[in-house]
């Protein structure tokens, strides 16, 4: 049966947009912006159509397309989505228009900028839908190129260095990952995620690989561990996990804020997606073996990044560290899930909770962080690029609406109940506490520190006496308010009715948790 | 002392005089004359070795000498014309001034 | 199911809706915001009365007075997470109290905040607070309770920092939020733990709820790695949340600072309702708190309740001690609130839900009365808050004085007539009969003495003697002027407040007087209502169980306290602003230590706050130097290899080739010297060669 190739269409829409923009040239900047936005909105609508058509209780992947591509390498073009993939598509489709709106004031090389953004979107779509390592990896690497140029060409004064650091860091991780996958390919002759997952589940994957590559100096366990660590590095850098994170603060703070939105809102999810889609099904056993150090890494990520955020004075750097902190909870949830529980039903139910929490937290963090950086962009636009904590004070008096709306987003990031941040964190903690008690309890410190630095921002930027310099700061325009309404409305909607997302991803979460090999 | 030794001594003398002239004079024409002298010393040797050699009846020595003299004449003509051309160019026949052909 | 049970959600939802609408309203729409808030609160109050009546009706008809309504919220894994609300006597009492006190304070605020430019915003926050607080009250799920609890914290933060351009207010708001969150983190973990153990967060669910016997028995049977049973661990963690919210020692430091907020906020949030939410929480999860590890140990007190008692009694004494040495009218009341909250906790610990809750309800009325009275005083004195600069207001503000006196006597527990007497006496009596230790009783009794003393001190300072306000106007630089100053008329003479403010005072003072009679030992209607038993009218209860001696001794204590207060402050009128405190003269060092709240802020600043700052610096340093340094080291090593490779290339590989080329080139140069263009030099070479050849030939010929 031939069905409409939804996913390929979705992936191609931004590419077409990019070509149109480049062909159009830079004479009419306003037109270019609107066309770019229109293409991203088309992608959003397509995603919503997929959301609508998605069957929330079916097993496996939906909207699959399969074409042979390079038969000699057994590389197929195979795409499809499950609940997780769909959630990531939706997040990308929401974050990209936000990034575009936050880049509205960019004046140089406008067509190039927006076409790079659209290309990045396409790469993200590709990454989140690919089911074969071959073209998954191509999309994964390809996404670096637009990101690199977006940071380098439109970024701040040290953007060249930051962009290079970003590129090299992620490349090193990717190469390690590629080596691991080549090793797996040599043994199994397949790149297909589903087949590899089946092999791993039946316990044949690693023996096959080790049998092929067995090296007399290493025991089979060690060889398997080395292969796992290679793949792990690729994703850990991308998430990022402390101590592989040092590219992130400089990249986030040097990139133009519109690009930072894409980096934090969508690209940071690529790493987590990789953990969920690739590491969990393929390397569950290896992750169990090194669970304790992994948990320490997650706890360190949560706590140290929260504390590091407390020490920053640049708003973008604070939010960059806050971003690491929030993704640290996701890592905690993912690591908790791999803990061996021998199929105990009560603990399996906790795994379901943690998994759902991770999904929800991924989406919520993308939405909240993107909106938060959007506010930074609007602030920069008004202040001519100033965004230090100490540059302001008492702004609430002149920009009450800005303060109120940004306050909502800040409290969403803090995890206030009623807004989207809370339920994700609650589910992660609920699931993780019975599984990995001490790590979870320690991570709760992060919740407190987050409150401290977020209230610190409110206190130092918006409260206190108003500085002379800012008396004429303009408040949000009607247009800005209207564009913010959907994002903030979504925060309230998800905070009050999380079933909106959980209803879609729950089945996938159950399957992922059950597919973890317990032995 | 055989008669040939006398000829040979004479030609050696002539050669030495020619060589000395060619090496010491700065005037290009005099150098050319010195060279002619050396050439003629060689011609004298040809004749001497032919006349007192093993086959005096074959006219080889005369043939050599005649060729050599005609080549020398042509060479002298070319040499003199070069000297003339150089002189026209640089208004001198002093060889020390003529070093534009160095490597 | 009854309509009111099904639609109990309307009680919190209406104020929240009002808050939502006024949040979208323009700054100028004052009337809209105020009428929305007051209107929604009034409807909520009526609904609460209905709910209360329904509970009464259920009791009178012998039906179960615990009604729940649960609904599914979201699904994860194979289970649904349900939320719901519960209507039982505890809920009903709290609902009526919160809506009634809230309504009065809303009305009062119309007068108090009349000149504030953010009037609309104020009512928006206030309504949101009321909604969230009512949510806490009706929640039948610990999760829903926690969510509302956090929103209550948010509104408290917003309202303390309401005058945001004052840095002190901004800092106080932040402090309040963070200190309460320190307690909320263990609460959160306790909740998650409870969820993991019992599989539900619903309190009551037809036998399957987490507060119902099967779950409690299961929790008691579980032991943890640290040796206590799961029920105790969870109860202690949840109690941490109550400690933070209710300003219990050692997390009390935020409550006095919270007085930076507008006075109606102090009355509503930081006296009557929110701070009592911690007490309410303990009362709500009382079955968990009182769960025992043993079987036949009904008579012993659980570890969690012992902790509650000790924390409560320490707080009661501690707050009363510090209140003695304060000069700010609102701070005295704030420390008094801390102390009274300690009493409530102690009451819960030693006597059970009804004992603690009775004091909670009476306290809510008389303490909000006192705060509103203080607000009226501050309003009348153009924002002055220092009691040394007041005096003589009894004549100028008669209504305020009369109502304040009622509130003060109720707080002191003046015998027989005032509500505070009955509720406090109940606690002291329960503490007296506590089976663990007598210390809480003595601490409570001493705190009662101090309470009577510091309240009489305050009243004599504020209302007695002659006015010292004139001195203040002469020396404005000393003024502790709060931001209230900017929000009121600059009229210099103290004046009585408008009716919109005094009428709530009068209503509250009536309740402060009469409410105690609902819970006297002779007719403990309130207690039996909460405990779901029938209350007989029985005057003999006074003479049983050691009740009479306790009542007598506490009466004596109160009278003694009042007398000491009169002796020091009322006997001779206080002459001037700068006159040292009459008690402070006895021991200035102790008095100043108490005045500085025993330096708790400084101690925390030097320890926890500093530690936190250091940790943040350390992790920033780690980030910059260690993690980044490691990466930089790797980079430098890679660069090092690159340089080495470059060196090998230029100096070994390249130099061989270059040397060869250069040799060829140089030899060419040398050879070109032969080609000097000198004919005679060529000839010399020819000559030399000739000579050499000749010599060679001769040499050969010789051989």
Q: How many β-strands of chain A, per DSSP?
A: 2
Distance between the first and last residues' Cα of chain A: 39 Å
Helix/sheet category of chain C = mainly alpha
What's the story with the biggest beta sheet of chain A? 2 strands, antiparallel
Largest interface, counted by CB within 8 Å of the partner chain's CB:
A-C, 67 and 55 residues
Overall mean pLDDT score of chain A? Answer: 88
Distance between the termini of chain C: 145 Å
The helix tally of chain A amounts to 20
Which range best describes the helical content of chain C: under 10%, 10-25%, 25-40%, 40-55%, 55-70% or over 70%? 55-70%
Helix and strand element order of chain A: HHEEHHHHHHHHHHHHHHHHHH
The outline of chain C comes out as elongated
For the largest sheet of chain A, list the strands in their spatial order.
Answer: 1-2
Uncertain parts of chain A: none
* Share of helical residues of chain A: over 70%
Query: Any low-confidence stretches of chain C, pLDDT <50, length ≥5?
Result: 472-491
Explain this structure.
The complex is a heterotrimer of chains A (519), B (103) and C (703). The two termini of chain A are 39 Å apart. The radius of gyration of chain A is 22 Å and the shape is globular. Helix content of chain A is 75%, strand content 3%. Chain A has helices at 6-24, 29-53, 83-102, 110-129, 133-142, 144-154, 159-188, 193-201, 205-213, 220-238, 247-254, 257-289, 291-311, 315-337, 345-383, 400-414, 420-435, 437-462, 478-496, 499-515, and strands at 62-70, 75-81. Chain A has 519 residues and is mainly α. Chain B is mostly helical. Chain B is 75% helix and 0% strand. Chain B contains three helices and no strands. Chain C has helices spanning 3-6, 10-24, 30-60, 89-112, 119-138, 142-160, 167-198, 213-221, 230-245, 254-257, 263-272, 274-284, 286-289, 303-323, 329-351, 353-380, 393-396, 398-412, 419-432, 439-463, 469-474, 499-514, 525-531, 547-570, 588-595, 600-674, 679-702; strands at residues 67-76, 79-87. Chain C has a two-stranded antiparallel ribbon. In chain C, a hairpin with a 2-residue loop joins strand 1 (67-76) and strand 2. Classes of the chains: A mainly alpha (519), B mainly alpha (103), C mainly alpha (703). The B-C interface holds B 19, 22-23, 31, 95-96, 98-103 and C 671-680, 683-684, 687.
């Amino acid at each position: 049966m031939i069905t409409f190739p939804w996913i390929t269409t979705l992936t191609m829409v931004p590419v077409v947009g990019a070509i149109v923009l480049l062909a159009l040239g830079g004479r009419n900047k306003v037109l270019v912006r609107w066309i770019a936005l229109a293409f991203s909105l088309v992608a959003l609508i397509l995603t919503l159509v997929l959301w609508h058509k998605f069957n929330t209780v079916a097993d496996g992947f939906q909207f699959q397309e399969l074409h042979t591509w390079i038969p000699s390498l057994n590389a197929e073009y195979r795409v499809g989505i499950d609940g997780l993939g769909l959630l990531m598509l939706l997040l990308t489709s929401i974050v990209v228009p936000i990034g575009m709106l936050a880049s509205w004031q960019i004046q140089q090389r406008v067509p190039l900028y927006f076409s790079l953004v659209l290309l990045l979107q396409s790469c993200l779509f590709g990454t989140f839908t690919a089911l074969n390592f071959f073209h998954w990896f191509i999309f994964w690497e390809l996404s670096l190129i637009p990101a690199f140029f977006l940071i380098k060409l439109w970024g701040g004064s040290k953007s060249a260095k930051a962009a290079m650091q970003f590129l090299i860091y992620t490349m090193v991780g990717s190469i390690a990952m590629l080596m691991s996958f080549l090793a797996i390919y040599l043994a199994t002759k397949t790149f297909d995620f589903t087949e590899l997952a089946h092999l791993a589940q039946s316990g044949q994957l690693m023996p096959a690989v080790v049998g092929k590559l067995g090296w007399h100096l290493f025991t089979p366990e060690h060889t398997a561990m080395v292969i796992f660590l290679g793949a792990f590095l690729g994703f850990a850098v991308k998430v990022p996990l402390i101590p592989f994170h040092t590219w992130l603060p400089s990249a986030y703070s040097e990139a133009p804020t519109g690009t930072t939105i894409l980096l934090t809102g969508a690209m940071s999810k690529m790493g987590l997606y990789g953990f969920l889609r690739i590491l969990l099904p393929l390397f569950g056993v290896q992750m169990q073996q090194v669970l304790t150090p992994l948990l320490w890494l997650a706890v360190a990520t949560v706590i140290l990044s929260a504390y590091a955020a407390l020490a920053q004075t640049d708003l973008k750097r604070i939010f960059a560290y806050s971003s690491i902190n929030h993704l640290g909870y996701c890592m905690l949830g993912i690591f908790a899930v791999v803990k061996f529980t021998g199929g105990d039903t009560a603990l399996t139910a906790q795994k379901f909770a943690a998994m759902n929490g991770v999904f929800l937290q991924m989406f919520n963090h993308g939405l909240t962080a993107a909106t938060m950086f959007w506010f930074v962009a609007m602030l920069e636009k008004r202040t001519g690029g100033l965004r230090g904590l100490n540059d302001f004070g008492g702004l609430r008096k002149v920009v009450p609406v800005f303060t109120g709306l940004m306050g909502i987003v800040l409290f969403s990031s803090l995890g206030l109940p009623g807004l989207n941040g809370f339920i994700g964190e609650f589910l992660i903690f609920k699931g993780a506490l019975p599984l990995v008690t001490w790590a979870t309890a320690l991570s709760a410190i992060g919740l407190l520190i987050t409150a401290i630095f977020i209230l610190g921002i409110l206190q130092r930027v918006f409260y206190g006496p108003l500085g002379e310099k800012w008396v004429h700061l303009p408040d949000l325009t009607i247009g800005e308010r209207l564009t913010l309404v959907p994002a903030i409305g979504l925060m309230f909607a998800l905070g009050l009715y999380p079933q909106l997302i959980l209803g879609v991803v729950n089945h996938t979460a159950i399957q992922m948790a059950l597919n973890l090999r317990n032995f | 002392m055989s008669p040939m030794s006398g000829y040979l001594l004479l030609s050696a003398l002539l050669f030495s005089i020619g060589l000395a002239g060619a090496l010491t004079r700065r005037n290009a024409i005099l150098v050319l004359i010195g060279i002619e002298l050396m050439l003629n010393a060689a011609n004298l040797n040809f004749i001497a070795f032919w006349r007192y050699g093993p086959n005096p009846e074959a006219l080889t020595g005369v043939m050599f000498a005649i060729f050599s003299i005609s080549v020398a004449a042509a060479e002298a003509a070319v040499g003199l014309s070069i000297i003339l051309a150089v002189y026209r160019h640089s208004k001198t026949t002093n060889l020390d001034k003529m070093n534009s052909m160095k490597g | 199911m009854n309509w009111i049970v099904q639609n109990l959600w309307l009680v919190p939802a209406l104020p929240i809706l009002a808050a939502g609408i006024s949040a979208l309203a323009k700054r100028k729409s004052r009337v809209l915001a105020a009428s929305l808030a007051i209107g929604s609160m009034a409807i909520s109050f009526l609904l609460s009365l209905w709910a209360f009546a329904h509970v009464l009706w259920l009791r009178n008809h012998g039906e179960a007075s615990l009604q729940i309504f649960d609904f599914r919220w979201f699904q994860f894994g194979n289970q649904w997470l349900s939320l719901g609300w519960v209507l039982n006597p505890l809920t009903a009492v709290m609902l009526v109290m919160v809506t009634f006190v809230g309504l009065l304070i809303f009305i009062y605020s119309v007068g108090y905040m009349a000149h504030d430019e953010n009037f609309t915003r104020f009512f928006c926050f206030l309504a949101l607070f009321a909604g969230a607080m009512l949510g806490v009250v009706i929640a039948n799920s610990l999760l829903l309770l926690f969510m509302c609890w956090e929103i209550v914290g948010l509104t408290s933060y917003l309202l303390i920092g309401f005058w945001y351009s004052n840095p002190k207010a901004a800092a106080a708001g932040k402090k309040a939020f963070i200190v309460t969150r320190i307690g909320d983190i263990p609460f959160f973990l306790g909740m998650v733990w409870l969820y993991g153990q019992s599989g539900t967060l619903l309190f009551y669910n037809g036998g399957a709820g987490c507060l119902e016997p099967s779950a409690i028995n299961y929790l008691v049977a579980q032991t943890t790695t640290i040796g206590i049973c799961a029920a105790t661990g969870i109860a202690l963690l949840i109690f941490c949340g109550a400690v933070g919210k209710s300003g219990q020692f050692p997390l009390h430091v935020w409550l006095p600072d919270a007085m930076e907020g507008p006075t109606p906020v102090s009355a509503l949030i930081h006296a009557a309702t929110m701070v009592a939410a911690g007490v309410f929480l303990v009362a709500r999860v009382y079955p968990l708190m009182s769960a025992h590890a043993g079987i036949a140990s009904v008579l012993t007190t659980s570890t969690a309740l012992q902790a509650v008692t000790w924390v409560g009694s320490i707080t009661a004494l501690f707050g009363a001690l510090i209140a003695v040495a304060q000069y700010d009218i609102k701070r005295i009341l704030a420390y008094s609130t801390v102390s009274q909250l300690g009493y409530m906790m102690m009451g819960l610990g030693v006597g059970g839900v009804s004992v603690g809750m009775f004091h909670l309800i009476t306290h809510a009325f008389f303490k909000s009365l006192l705060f509103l009275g203080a607000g009226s005083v501050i309003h009348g004195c153009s924002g002055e808050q220092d009691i040394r600069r007041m005096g003589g207001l009894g004549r100028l503000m008669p209504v305020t004085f009369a109502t304040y006196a009622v509130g003060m006597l109720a707080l002191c527990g003046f015998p027989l007539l005032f509500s505070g007497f009955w509720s406090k006496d109940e606690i002291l009596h329960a503490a007296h009969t506590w089976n663990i230790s007598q210390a809480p009783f003595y601490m409570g009794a001493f705190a009662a003495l101090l309470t009577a003393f510091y309240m009489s001190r305050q009243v004599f300072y504020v209302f007695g003697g002659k006015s010292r306000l004139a001195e203040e106007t002469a020396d404005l630089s000393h003024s502790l002027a709060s931001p209230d100053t900017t929000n009121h008329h600059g009229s210099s003479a103290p004046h009585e407040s408008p009716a919109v403010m005094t009428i709530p005072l009068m209503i509250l003072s009536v309740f402060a007087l009469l409410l105690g009679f609902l819970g006297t030992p002779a007719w403990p209607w309130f207690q039996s209502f909460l405990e779901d038993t029938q209350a007989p009218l029985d005057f003999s209860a006074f003479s049983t169980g050691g009740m009479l001696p306790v009542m007598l001794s506490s009466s004596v204590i109160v009278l003694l306290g009042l007398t000491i207060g009169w002796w020091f402050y009322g006997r001779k009128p206080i002459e001037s602003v700068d006159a040292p405190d009459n008690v402070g003269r006895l021991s200035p060092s102790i008095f100043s230590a108490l005045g500085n709240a025993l330096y708790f802020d400084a101690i925390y600043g030097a320890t926890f706050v500093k530690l936190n700052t250091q940790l943040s610096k350390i992790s920033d340093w780690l980030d910059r130097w260690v993690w980044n340094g490691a990466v930089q080291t790797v980079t430098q090593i890679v660069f090092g290899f690159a340089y080495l490779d470059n060196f090998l290339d230029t100096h070994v590989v390249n130099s061989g080739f270059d040397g060869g080329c250069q040799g060829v080139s140089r030899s060419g140069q040398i050879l070109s010297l032969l080609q000097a263009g000198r004919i005679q030099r060529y000839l010399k070479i020819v000559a030399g060669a000739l000579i050499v050849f000749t010599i060679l030939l001769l040499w050969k010929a010789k051989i």
